[in-house]
């Protein structure tokens, strides 16, 4: 603990012989020459998240029991008149913090009558901004306990926010809420601190003074913990969850979360006939599945799913990326009824240019090997049609569905009369001219540079806005966004899926490296190299057992678009390192990606800024 606040009214004591604390200097052994040492990228924080492990047994958990006296009213960053805190673990008192606090405002008379704290007592006391550093250090790495915790925590959080201190966001256990779950009305008529102190015969009686009330709450906490064993609550996480309101179904099915591994992976809730009901993923399977049986889970469909579930199956994975990919594949394979997203990837649609003398745009369910000009995949037919409308606004592609002949003339439609179509049906334009002005801009936009299409749509938006036809301009803006969204996405996917094999590594949280082997945009193998060991032998082992992925046609030949996008997100993280590639990973210099800012403006509805993007 750092130097306490130098003030006569602040008292901090600590118990001697606290386990895990040493005053001896720590020395770091030197690294032997030639030994492999894992390096971190510059600017990365190597530390992991702190806090108390929810799986920690109650007897090994450090609790800091806090009580505040205030001037009353709502928490606004002030109003605290006294703080009392007691640190305990395993029934042993480790430390005490107690101080009066000058709230900077007069104390209401009824508060003085209730607590015995007078204005004269608080004049020499330190203000809350001087007390907070010692209190926050005292609470660090412990579970915060209070009776009616939202009240005390609310005042402390408001004080931290007002005076610029970071709230450590500790785990909080409310003894009042826990008593409502543990004790019946036959045992205690209410859950007031005085009533509970009398029931458990605490050594210190509550007196509306912070330290006395905190010490009484310590004894109440120990009495409540003694009752939790009958409810099969053994860890601090289970105790916090138990204090919250849960449904009878959650309480009855809690045993389904027992025995699951605390590793990254996929969990599958299965019905009595072994049918998958719900598939999820987590970096910690055990902790995530337990959360379904707590008050934090409020989704109605999850309550229905839990009622039908009979067991939970865990699929352990090397790291979170592999877990995400396995989840996607399981959802696609089984279409669990309680999963809403990532189902039916085969329902994606494409926008392709037909193979005709005068080609047109067509929405199709799948691509053939003969298709050379296409855009997608789109998640729905409506999205594909919106992008098609954007191309129709920009270039003179015909919109009729007739198969035109080079010999026979077909009567023109109204679009030709309006000047929206060059009327290839009446042979007013040659196939070569039609390809140059209509079809070629689509091919160029999808594979490399959409500049022609973007300029045409921006000019149309500008003209409509100048004519104060703002609703029509907004429609064209949405079509521009659909075109850019699709072209950026497809070129980004194609850049990865054309690579036959790519190996990448990312630092693992516990040391070592998370490794991924990607073939044509599909995760073919995954693993983790041990800390202190060079990752190349592990990569070689992954390659020897990896899935064989042959090349295919299109931007997502061997995986769903969502799987490849998950892999891309992992590869594009700043800490990920590319180890080996069979070919270069590149995108067109003048490709659609350079219009990302324009896409963001179009999606945000800023039509008046779009004309400035023309080049």
UniProtKB/TrEMBL annotation:
<dbReference type="GO" id="GO:0004527">
    <property type="term" value="F:exonuclease activity"/>
</dbReference>
<dbReference type="Pfam" id="PF00929">
    <property type="entry name" value="RNase_T"/>
</dbReference>
<feature type="domain" description="GIY-YIG">
    <location>
        <begin position="262"/>
        <end position="340"/>
    </location>
</feature>
<dbReference type="InterPro" id="IPR013520">
    <property type="entry name" value="Ribonucl_H"/>
</dbReference>
<dbReference type="GO" id="GO:0006260">
    <property type="term" value="P:DNA replication"/>
</dbReference>
<dbReference type="InterPro" id="IPR050066">
    <property type="entry name" value="UvrABC_protein_C"/>
</dbReference>
<dbReference type="InterPro" id="IPR047296">
    <property type="entry name" value="GIY-YIG_UvrC_Cho"/>
</dbReference>
<dbReference type="GO" id="GO:0006289">
    <property type="term" value="P:nucleotide-excision repair"/>
</dbReference>
<keyword id="KW-0269">Exonuclease</keyword>
<dbReference type="InterPro" id="IPR012337">
    <property type="entry name" value="RNaseH-like_sf"/>
</dbReference>
<dbReference type="GO" id="GO:0003887">
    <property type="term" value="F:DNA-directed DNA polymerase activity"/>
</dbReference>
<dbReference type="InterPro" id="IPR006054">
    <property type="entry name" value="DnaQ"/>
</dbReference>
<protein>
    <submittedName>
        <fullName>DNA polymerase-3 subunit epsilon</fullName>
    </submittedName>
</protein>
<dbReference type="InterPro" id="IPR036397">
    <property type="entry name" value="RNaseH_sf"/>
</dbReference>
<dbReference type="GO" id="GO:0003677">
    <property type="term" value="F:DNA binding"/>
</dbReference>
<dbReference type="GO" id="GO:0009380">
    <property type="term" value="C:excinuclease repair complex"/>
</dbReference>
<keyword id="KW-0540">Nuclease</keyword>
<dbReference type="Pfam" id="PF01541">
    <property type="entry name" value="GIY-YIG"/>
</dbReference>
<dbReference type="InterPro" id="IPR035901">
    <property type="entry name" value="GIY-YIG_endonuc_sf"/>
</dbReference>
<keyword id="KW-0378">Hydrolase</keyword>
<dbReference type="InterPro" id="IPR000305">
    <property type="entry name" value="GIY-YIG_endonuc"/>
</dbReference>
